[in-house]
Amino acid sequence: MRLVSEGGEATTLWRGPGRAAMGWGEIVRHLIPFAGALGTAIPRALQVSGAVEAHMPQGDFWYLHIAGCDPVAQGRGFGRRALVAGLERAAGRTPCYLETATERNLGFYASVGFAVTDEWRVGRDGPRFWSMLRPADRR
């Protein structure tokens, strides 16, 4: 499910229950357009992708795969509205899950009901991530 603000200031991309993990075919299909930009970092991108998948919860959940807001529009509610629209569509059905590598986003996600369930790194010295879950029964 893709949700984009009317003026394109913010967007979220959700993967529905049972569709959170990407198979190798989908991973390769997504990497091909970025191959030139990633260059020798492709193995690292695959390592990050594998680590993300390994930290996903068991069972059904909505997965917030991508959330983004134009930097000029940040702090004006566009990102929150795009996120809440996705949460409303998932309400009552299953939990919602995300991971973030941006510590300053933890409070933002907590303000809409997510709680940190894990903190982890990719490799020994790779980026730090936080896994966050929002229970299904939140309204």
From TrEMBL:
InterPro entries: Acyl_CoA_acyltransferase (IPR016181), GNAT_dom (IPR000182), Trichothecene_AcTrans (IPR052523). One of its GO terms (molecular function) is acyltransferase activity, transferring groups other than amino-acyl groups. Residues 1-137 form the N-acetyltransferase domain. It comes from the Eukaryota. It holds the Pfam family Acetyltransf_1. This is N-acetyltransferase domain-containing protein. It comes from Diploscapter pachys. The lineage of its organism: Eukaryota, Metazoa, Ecdysozoa, Nematoda, Chromadorea.
